[in-house]
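Dear colleagues,

As part of the handover before I leave the project, I'm documenting each prediction I ran so the next person doesn't have to rerun anything. This entry is a single chain, and its sequence is reproduced below.
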Amino acid sequence: MTENILELKDISKEFSGVEVLHNVSFSLRPGEVHALLGENGAGKSTLVKVMTGVHQPDHGEIFLNGQPVKFTDTRDSRRNGIAAIYQELSLFPDLNVAENIYVGRQPTTKTGRIDWRRLYDEADKLLSSLGVNLDLRKKARTLSIAQQQMVEIGRAFSINARILIMDEPTSSLTLNEVADLFKLVRRLREDGTAIIFISHRLEELFELADRVTVLRDGFYVATRSMGEVGHDDLIRMMVGRTITNLFPKQETAIGDVVLKVDNLSRQGSFENVSFELRRGEILGMAGLVGAGRKEVARAIFGVEPATGGTIQVNGKRVTITSPEQAIRLGLAYVPEDRQIHGLIPQMNITANITLPLIHRYAVTGWLRERLERAAAYRAARQMEVRANNMWQNARELSGGNQQKIVLAKWLSTNPRILILDEPTRGIDVGTKAAVHALMSKLAAEGMAILMISSELLEVLGMSDRILVMREGVAVGIFTRAEATQEKILWASTQTISTGTVTGVVP
C-alpha cells in the first residue's frame, strides 16, 4: 500500500516542438499541504493541467492510490476526486451561492425539475461542514474575492474532492481574509484532504506547508520538508542563484512636481484625496483591499473620471476624461488585472505591445507590419520577454511574461508619469526583482512613478514616500525614513478624523 494519494512519474509535455516539462516527478500524501514552487514559466501550470486532465502527458505515468490512471479530460480527474481553484475564479456571477456549488449537477425531482429545497439543504450542510457561513441566496457578483473562493472550495467538495489544488489563492485577499482561508486549509488537512498550494509569497509557505517541490525551466529540482529549508534556499532552488537584493532602490535626485492632485473625489469611491508626485520619485500608495487606491489611479488615468477636485500635470491644470487624453499628457497605467484590463489574451505579443500606438505604424489606413514588428521586438527584448516568437498569443505565456508585455506596451509610449497597480502581483521572486530593478532605473532616469501595492515589504522597499488610504480617504503620508510596517498597518486600519497627516505614529 503506497503512502501517496497521488504520484506523477517522469512526466514530459511539449507544445509546438517546445518541451515545457522534462521528466518531472511529484508525489502527494493524504492530509498534507504540499507547496508547488517555481518562477513563472517553470512548468507549474502545465503540471497542474496534467493532474486535472486539461493536458495529457506525452511521456510518464500518473498513479492514484498506487493504481495507474489516465485522465482524458477534466471530468475524469473530477470523478477521481481532484479539484482545482485557480487565481482567476470561475463562478457564474448571476447565479447564487447554492446554484454555483451545484451548477450542472442540481438535484432533481422525479419529474426532472430542479429540487430547490434539496439544493439549498445540501449546500447548507456542505458549507456548514467546512465551517463556512454564507447567504446561500446571494448572487456571486456581490461576494468578496474571499467569499467567492469559499464557494469554489464548496463546489470542489460537493464532488467529494480528496485532492484540492489552490493556485495563488491569497493574491487578492486582505490579511484577515488570508487568516480565514488558512484556518479552513488547516481544517481540511486535519480531515485528510491533500492540498497542493501554489503561491509566490514565500512567507505563506513557511506558515502553512508541510513539504515543497520546486520546478525550474520545466525540470524537477527537489522536494524538501519545509522544516529543512529557509527563505534563501527556496529562492536559490527556484532561480538557480541567490537574489541578494529584492528591492534594488537607487538613491535619486527628486525633481519638480509633475503631478498634483487636490481634493480629488469620485462619488461612492473616494473623496478629497490630495498628493504631489515629483520627477524621479516613487510614491507608494498603501492600504487594505477596498481602500480606494485603484479607483484613484483609474480616475487620474481617465478610466473612471473624477467627479470633483483638480489634477495638474507639469504645473498645468488639466481635465482627464479618457485614457487617450492621459496618454497624450504623458501618463501610462499598468492595471492590476493584466488578464482583463492589461492584455488582450487572444492577440499575439506584437499586437498587444503596439496597441496604444497603432496609428504610428499605419499609413493611409494600412498597417506597416514590418515597422510594427520591429518596434514590438525592441520593446519585448528590452523587457526580456520569454516566448517562442512574436506571434505567440499572450494567453499562452506565463504570468510573469504577460506582466512584462504589459510593461513593454506602456513604456513604449515614453511616459513621464507611470502608474503601477500591483506591479508584481502573481509573479515569481526572480521576475519581481527584475521589475523592481526596472522601476528603480526608470526613476533614476527622471520618470515619476505612482505605485499601488498590497505587499508592505514592496511598499517599504521601493518607495521614497508612502501615502496610506483607508475607506476612500488619504489618512497618512510617510517619508522613507519614517515608514515602518507597524505605522503603515496602523494608519490603514484606524479612523483619522483630522484628514491627511504626516508621520503618523501609533
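The CA atoms of residues 372 and 487 lie 48 Å apart. Confidence is low (pLDDT under 50) at residues 495-506.

All the best with the project,
I.
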